[in-house]
Amino acid sequence: MADYEAIVIGAGNGGLTAAATLAQHGVRTLLLERHNVPGGCATSFCRGRFEFEVALHQLSGIGTEEKPGPLRLLLARLGVLDRLELVPMDDLYRVVIPEVIDITLKPDRDATVAALQAHFPAHKDGIAEWFDLLWGLFGEVIGAFYFKDPQVTREKYPLFHRYALQTSAAEMDRCLKDPVLKTVASAYWTYMGLPPSRLALTDMAALYFAYSEFLPYHLRGGSQALSNALAQSVLDAGGDIRFNCGVRRILVDDEGVAGVVTEAGDTIAARQVVSNVSKVATYVDLIEADRVPLAVLDELRQARIGPSAFTVYLGLDAEAADLGMTASTTFIVGDTDPDRIYARMFQREIGPRDGMLLTCYNAIDPGFSPPGTCQAALVTLKYGESWRDVPPRDYADEKYRIAADMLSAAERVFPGLRGRVEEMEIATPLTHQRYLGHPQGAIYGFDHHVKDSPLFVANRPHIRGLYGAGGWYGSGGFQPTLESGVAAARAVLRHLNRSEAR
Amino acid sequence: MKSDIARKLDGYDALMGEIAAARKYGSDFTPLRGRLQDAVARLHPHRVALRVSRVIDETPSTRTLRLVPAAGNLPPFQTGQYITLFFDLGGVRTARPYSISSAPSQTAFWEITVRRVAEGLVSNHLLDLGPGALLESSGPAGTFVFNPVIHPPQLVCIAGGSGITPFMSMIRETVQRDLPRRITLLYGNRRLDDVIFHAELNELARSAVQFDYIPVVEDPPGNYPGRRGLIDAPLIREACGTLDDKVFFVCGPQGLYDHVLPQLEAMAVPRRRLRCEIYGAPANVWEQPGWPAEVDRHARFTVTLPGGRHVEAPAAVPLIRSLEKSGWAIPSLCRSGTCSLCRLKLLSGRIFQPPGVPVRSSDRRFGYIHACVSYPLSDLEILL
């Protein structure tokens, strides 16, 4: 006899929306979380008088009340929208290539095109063509997949058929030509972790379409406010949550998933399990090797673990404006060749030629830290391998050394930054690994090459009753992982024949 | 369905070749079974098994315990960090944090120094342990550390009583490794025989150019030649010379903070050059600003736990202690409100958390509380 109809392992974005969706559809649901709060990446921590946002930079897919985006609709269905304070950002982003360009774009396609054309008049037509291509292509993706067109033909979806399996660089080179222009117009590639030469053109289109059409947002109270609201929805709908309760085994028998064994040794029976644990740990650590289907091992071999990050969280005793933090999102780009920046993501060192992102929410939410202060997260993507072999005794010194180099690089844009730091916390790939349990501290799951698209690696159960939710089972980032949990829950509902399932 | 779509896309065949190659030559994770988290465990083990190898008498009321790993290696730590020791004392599973007083370059052992507290369940248990006794600790934790990226290399350390322990680690490390730092220690104690590490500190000050030692005794013997009274602004100024090239570290009992922090503020020391170590829950919580006058500090309330079980909890006792006393084990490290490991969710009822406890804004809204500094003001229902 099952203790629960469904168990969700992990209260990250995907686990929370999965559990909330299941509980709201009357499924007897248990959400297990090894930490003492919900959220996973979507969390914050306090140091001194500051509360630092860990992971959220720009929330996508929200839109306005008049023109709601998919994430706004999802959050409304889960009953959390009213519990959130959403703050739209005035800027798409600011890009600074020190001594070359300093430009701020608006979250509006026409304004972005106009601003780029004013700066790069020689490439006027190419700029228009590039944005036409991104919007045209993504419009087709929406028609084919979001609205689930039963007939996805070449005649109806010509751009999709031509470009769906292409990377971004060829068309970008053809349209934009100037390396500075390309750098400015494609700075969002870091949100997916692959440079234009490797990033699918559809992913590039998705980034610019989503943030321009539905605006980038900040959450007052940080992403933990969303995590706490979602956990509350699980409880309100009658779901159970156990914190401080990790899982060490997913039980599988001849009929499929049979339940879980907790770290404390309790066995809890259920025939439906949603894993918000990394796909690697789910199949390598949590399931008996004999029960792992070979098709999963094929999928795991095909994939490559994506980048982690090196982040310096800064609590500063000066106002954002006094430090030159005029935009909430500033990309500092030290090299106009994104492939060279990508190559540096495999090295531990950080220097003036790296790309990095500084997020300062005080620019749009003055109450984000105490009066007279501001806080910022300075982050750059790094693959985890380079940190794995640092001798433990050198680890702290190495963190400080590299953080100092990173601050020096950032001070070219924000002079005097270091002199105003009151609280500092440094997160390496090992820090991310420690708190997320993700192999190599990967923050977006696997690399998302074209070959790893859901067209080829569908997120379907390999073991009857076992579903995946989170960045390891689709795209990384807030909107995709929140959506992935709902998708997993819907698959469970279909399986349980709950009529409420869409 | 999706695969039917994919077949018609430009570049499909080439991509299938790419997938086949990746599946053939890609890396296999299965040999990492059980070892995915090894790199993290080397730095941040969940638990460390320790054995007492030596007990050193320091003062009439304090002893140092030298702890060696019962197996394997000790994880690294930064000077100023603490470990938390876990105990099961007659069915009460509890924990206490202790700053490490040995230097990180000493990788063979950790030392902690413990003061006997009258009726202190844990301190009395610890101080009666002899060589060979086994203990279990957390990995090192804490943010009371010197940050070379932002702190000037001149440290003014202000200690009271057993608050000396993190500074011993900093001083020993600086001297032993000949680090390019300068440390001035102002160390306050009530009586001369309370001063821990007095001889070693005098010797270090004599032999090392980086270190100055200024003991201050409140109530010394009549013939005591050193400084008397309390650590105050004139003394700090005299010891420091210039203030704006110094970083201040303060560690000691509540009385030290109450006395010293206003003086540092009056001297306009900015918060970015001041770090205070945590030092336990407040002694008389009902004297804290904000304690509701209508709640009798002797009141007792009922806490309802998952599964409908009940625990009795006095108003003036931290919730974590009442839960532990009833046999519940709540994760915890700092037991001072800061590390957040003892968070739990309040489903109903009211609690008091003293001002200044770093609770995240959305946790306040959704009822996540730090059990080590939460005091019941009504019957409670909690989620663990």
Biggest sheet features of chain B: 6 strands, antiparallel
Taking all residues together, what is the mean pLDDT of chain B? Answer: 95
Order of helices and strands of chain B: HHHEEEEEHEEHEHEEHEHEEEHEEHEEE
| Category from helices, strands and their pairing of chain B | alpha/beta
Provide a compact summary of the structure:
Chain A is built from 16 helices and 19 strands. Chain A has helices spanning 13-24, 70-77, 109-119, 124-146, 158-163, 169-176, 179-185, 201-214, 223-236, 279-286, 294-302, 338-344, 385-388, 395-411, 429-436, 478-495, and strands at residues 6-9, 29-32, 44-47, 50-53, 86-88, 93-97, 101-105, 217-219, 240-242, 247-253, 256-262, 267-269, 272-275, 308-316, 329-333, 355-359, 374-382, 421-427, 466-468. In chain A, strands 7-6-15-16-17-14-18 form a 7-stranded mixed β-sheet, sandwiched between helices.
List the helices and strands and how they pair.
The complex is a heterodimer of chains A (502) and B (384).
Chain A: E1 6-9, H1 13-24, E2 29-32, E3 44-47, E4 50-53, H2 70-77, E5 86-88, E6 93-97, E7 101-105, H3 109-119, H4 124-146, H5 158-163, H6 169-176, H7 179-185, H8 201-214, E8 217-219, H9 223-236, E9 240-242, E10 247-253, E11 256-262, E12 267-269, E13 272-275, H10 279-286, H11 294-302, E14 308-316, E15 329-333, H12 338-344, E16 355-359, E17 374-382, H13 385-388, H14 395-411, E18 421-427, H15 429-436, E19 466-468, H16 478-495
Chain B: H1 2-7, H2 12-25, H3 38-43, E1 48-59, E2 62-69, E3 82-89, E4 92-99, E5 110-115, H4 121-127, E6 134-137, E7 154-160, H5 165-176, E8 182-189, H6 198-207, E9 211-217, E10 227-228, H7 233-240, E11 247-251, H8 254-266, E12 274-276, E13 300-304, E14 310-314, H9 319-325, E15 343-348, E16 351-352, H10 361-366, E17 368-370, E18 375-376, E19 380-383
Parallel strand pairs in B: 7-8, 7-11, 8-9, 9-10, 11-12, 13-19
Antiparallel strand pairs in B: 1-2, 1-6, 2-5, 3-4, 3-6, 13-14, 15-17, 15-19, 16-18
